[in-house]
Amino acid sequence: MSPPAWSGTCCSTRIARGGRNTLLYRVDGEPDAFAGMLEAAPGVREWEFTSTADGTFYAFVEEETPDGDEEILDALSRTGIMTVPPIEFAADRTATFTLIGTSGAIRPALEELPDEMGMDVIRVGEYDRRRELFDSGLTGRQREAVAAAVDAGYYDSPRRGSIDDVARTLDVAASTAAEHLRKAESRVMATVLDIDD
Length: 197
Prior knowledge:
The protein is built from seven helices and six strands, in the order ββαββαββααααα. The chain is an alpha+beta fold. It is globular and about 60 Å long.
């Protein structure tokens, strides 16, 4: 039986070289599962949870920098780059975050990360904080479908474009274009409702 899942977003950090780091997480999942992860994590010394009305909770955590993390901190603390919160964590020990800076500083920083730390670059481009404030979670293909629909006038009122127009732009069947749009719309609407809560 697998352990209960959780996902967390590190909302704020204070890294203290040679001292205790202080972190604030917003966690969706079972508090006991997250506490179990904290108990097993090297360096974690104290934590407190605060529940919220929507079933999530905040975790205020104090930790000493774990062995091996110094190498990561050194790579990501160089001049010319910065990590922009939030940092999203999952129970499978993956983290997703935004790193901004000059290409001349980012490339060497990524090359200095420990070999055992796997890394995938999800998106490269100019930084726009508005995108971070509303991350729709759309896949690249869903984003292309939405862009094609907007360009075709599919979302205009009154509607000027059709699913067939979107399908032609994407060079796919109409049913495939419709599926991409349905999934994109579902994801965006769920995100909007989550923000409003």
